[in-house]
Amino acid sequence: MYLNDAATAAVVVSCLLLMFSYQPVMACNCPDISDIESFCSAENIVRLKVLKEIEPEPEPESEFEDEDEKPSSDYYHYKVRIEHVYKSSKGLTPQAEVDFRTPKVAELCYLNLYTGKQYLLDVQDYNGDLSANACSWIKRWERAQEYVKILSDGTLQSACRQDRNHA
């Protein structure tokens, strides 16, 4: 009987340890929407060229009393040139060189960009700095020609109007 009680206690303790040590896992979870829905909901659609990856400015050490309060460098920072603006809610300018950031970690939906490559994508504009992640609509420029056509010939605008009328 003693062995049974000890085994039961061990199982209970193990379950309690597992229950209290559980940490929720964050993961990238992008909505499953069509290309047209992505275009219609995007505030900005641009073709940009990645000029270089830049290191973010380090924060002054004296600013943070506790090491845990320091902001982490969870973002890649790039210098990019906006080659063409297809849609802009804030007046993005072609040929402008701007800062661009994207998360580094999978939990924040990281996005790999390569220096020298061009991309067609929807971006967020934060006071002139651009941002995107893996949930943003993105195509490498070499594979984007069919999308450029619908952006240029008015098909996108027509599809967005139809979508709004059916909602």
UniProtKB/TrEMBL annotation:
Extract the InterPro entries matched here: Netrin_domain, TIMP, TIMP-like_OB-fold
Q: Where in the cell is it found?
A: Secreted
PANTHER family assigned: METALLOPROTEASE INHIBITOR, TISSUE INHIBITOR OF METALLOPROTEINASE
Pfam families, A to Z: TIMP
- Molecular function terms, GO-annotated: metal ion binding; metalloendopeptidase inhibitor activity; protease binding
What is the annotated signal peptide range for this record? 1-27
Organism listed in the record: Potamilus streckersoni
A GO-annotated cellular component: extracellular matrix
- Positions that bind Zn(2+): 28
Instruction: Outline the extent of the NTR domain.
Output: 28-160
Q: A GO biological process this protein is involved in? A: negative regulation of membrane protein ectodomain proteolysis
Keyword terms of this UniProt record: Disulfide bond, Metal-binding, Secreted, Signal, Zinc
Give the superkingdom in one word. Answer: Eukaryota
Disulphide-bonded residues: 28-109, 30-135
Protein name in the entry: NTR domain-containing protein
UniProt key word Cytoplasm: no
